[in-house]
Amino acid sequence: MICFERVVARYPRASRAAVDDISFAVPPAQITAVVGPNGSGKSTLVRALLGMLPLVSGTIRVEGLDSATRDRRAFARRVAVVTQRESLVFPMPVREYVALGRYPHEGSWHAAGVEDARAVDDAVTLAGILPFALRSTEELSGGEWQRVRIARALAQAAPALVLDEPTTFLDIAHEMAMFELFTRLARGGTAVLLVSHQLNLVARFADRIVLLHQGRVAAAGTPNEVMRAAVLEPVYDWPLVVTRDPAVGAPALLPLRGSSH
Amino acid sequence: MKRPIFWVLAVAMLAVLMILGVSWGTVPLTPRAVLAALAGHGDRNAIEIVRALRLPRVALAALVGAGLGVSGAALQGSLRNALAEPYLLGVSGGAAVGAVIGVALGFSSAIALPLFAFAGAAAAIATAILIARAAGGRADPRVLLMAGVIIGAFANAAIMVVLSGAPANTMRSALWWMMGSAAAADWPQVAWLAGYTVLAGGALLWFSRDIDILALGEESATALGVDAERAGRRVFLVSSLLAAATVAAAGLVGFVGLVVPHLVRAAGIRRHRALLPGAALAGASLVVLADLVARVAHPPAELPLGAVTALVGVPFFLVQLRRLS
Amino acid sequence: MASSAFVLWRALAHGHLLPGTVPFVRCARAVPVLALCVVACRAASPRRDAVSADDFGEPVARGSAATPSRIVSLMPATTELLFAIGAGPRVVGRTPWDLWSDSARRVADVGVGLRPNIEAVLARRPDLVLLYATGENRAAAQALRAAGVAVIALRIDRVEDFRRAARLIGMATGDSARAAAVVDSVDRTLARVRSRTAGLPRPTVFWHVWDAPIITIARGSFLDELLTIAGGRNIYEDLSQPSPQVSLEDIVRRDPDVILAGPDGAARIRASATWRSVRAVREGHVLVVDTSLIGHPSVRMGEAATVLAHLLHPAVVQ
User: Fold this and answer.
1) pLDDT tens digit sequence for B102-156
2) Which string of b and e fits A217-254 if b means at least 16 CB within 10 Å?
3) For the domain C201-312, what is the CATH code?
4) Residues with Cβ < 8 Å from B323, sequence gap 6 or more?
5) Model pTM?
6) Domain range spanning residue B188?
7) ipTM of this complex > 0.90?
8) Which of residues 10-49 of B touch C (CB under 8 A)?
9) pLDDT, mean of residues B233-238
């Protein structure tokens, strides 16, 4: 469970708060999606959660532990975060990279135990990267690398999972596979927080959607409640139509041409 | 390369090179004479050469190489930069300024000069960190690198100013020091550097898992539970101070800290818990070899140690160039 | 930075940064050798207004037509010579190291002799300039000649160079007789010292110039000659350079009986742990030499040889 309570955060030397009094919860066994236009504060929220941006006011708690805690490892045991981008300077075998996710659980001597090996195996299987688990990270395609990163987060075996734009470089097949994975994880009890641009996929897979606009919550609720033209158009400032696709059973967003505005 | 093979090779190579370093030198001695000298028998001069001159020198060279190798490996990992090296945070510039000032003030003995050099290096490191803080760079390695470059440039200028008006002997001593040499090695110095290297190297080994995580980047490291800024700063500090100690002992010996980690990584060693000791062994071998070359290349003169290690840089950068293109 | 330091060190080792003190060898020795031949030939057949050549190969005219009245000397060795041959009153410019007498001190300091400050030199309105003959001073020589000043470039490494320099300078200033007398006096003193030490046992000597890096005197330097005259034997007499760099190991192997060093050098040797490997240091045979006396081959060489002989053979030579 992740709780954002009246969170206000500002970048140094910025006049306006990037995140201005945001409150919402990410309950376990559900996928909560945070959506919004560029600059609405989505990634800022993730940075604030990580403790990389000090909060002006408000708190962020994961499983009851405040994000400002000094015990970073304890915090990492409660929430695994997959950031937008990551590149490795020094390549290593995929399995070794996934095993880095066990760091929050390692003792002082950092020796890998049986539990660690099992957690890594589970993560590799779950993320579907077994076919290339022994390859080097520098040989992976964009999509494979993305899944490997998610596997590392899974190896952390944390009850909460935060993903910031996890499907940016993925094709349709991989994207769908990812979202189905997130669903499986949520069914397994994980509290999944998903930051994404992909409104249609979010509408299909998320249990709750939080819509951000200029650092504030513009709307929050089920996909049916939030995915409405009346709600979305003012936020995205673009003409759209929301239909319901019978094949999928979820609201679908169709942006119109700008000239008809 | 299989792991066990690497370690066996590394230890064996270091042992062989150290033996060669004691057996060879400006003065040719037969193996029997060397052994006799080690045991304390035979020609008094041979005993002096082997025990009082060559042994401490080889020991010092090994320690300097180990220190630089470990420092370089730790910095490359924590700064996420394959071309990072121990002299980065202004260590070499600061140490050189300290040494030049020491020489100019008349403190050029084997005891005083290292102290001046170390003080200069420590001051430079502190200044680099302060500059980085003032520039607002939290754990951004680029800011630290920039600060180091700034200090290096300032140090160069300061050295030129001090040396331009200096008498000939001052200039000669200062320049000789700046080019690195294990010639003034004696046992007290070896003992001091050994203690220091074990302490600092041990600390870095303790941090080795943190360095593995830091190598992923600030965000990922933070996500895994590492305080990136604190851990990064700890590693910079200990690595730089270790490098400063080697500079105080033997002057500027470049390229070792840069090249050795790459060599060990090329042998398949990645995790810093193994990379750091591996770099220590490889670095020790490299500097012992360089010192040997410095002594036998052009007798009876000695080449500066830093010149020999600089030659190592040439093929290294050629290889890097090929990899890039 | 290491690379620029190395370049500077090379320059240092080749003597380009040590004006007025211990001269080092230059690569091309052809020119002065040629000049020596020319001088020898000319001396054999004296002619009216004969011309000799200096160490840059430039002609030196006899001072009959126009005796120089304002001379700038950019080397301590030549300053001493000028004063010794009685041309002292005509010296109007000297180097910062010419402090060996009050009359020398009173002369204006025009700066160092290596890459001299042409403006400062010309400000003294000289008609003759004595310059250190090294590659770096060629431009200065040209500039001075272009300004209409006579230039004699000299390189005084060995005793014979001193004799030749004295002859050339005497010729140029019109004091040939006095110059010959000075050379004779020095030669006589050297001969006297040589005969005093002739039959004595020769201690092997290591001459310490500096120890970071270790630099010593070898066959190419006049100090080696003085050492031999004074009854000693340089352990590095087999090397031909004037001041080569050597290693401590090699010194230990060559096992000198005695070490000669300046006061600074002697202190450093005695304080160093590694120098104790040398027997001479352990046995306390480190002798201090007054470096001002042996800085360059000049009129006081005789005195220098005497001092050295006394150091090496205290019982015999006073």
Assistant:
1) 888 877 676 788 888 889 988 998 888 888 788 776 557 778 778 888 888 999 8
2) bbbbeebeebbebebbbebbeeeeebeeeeeeebbbbe
3) 3.40.50.1980
4) none
5) 0.84
6) 3-324
7) no
8) 25-27, 44-45, 48-49
9) 89
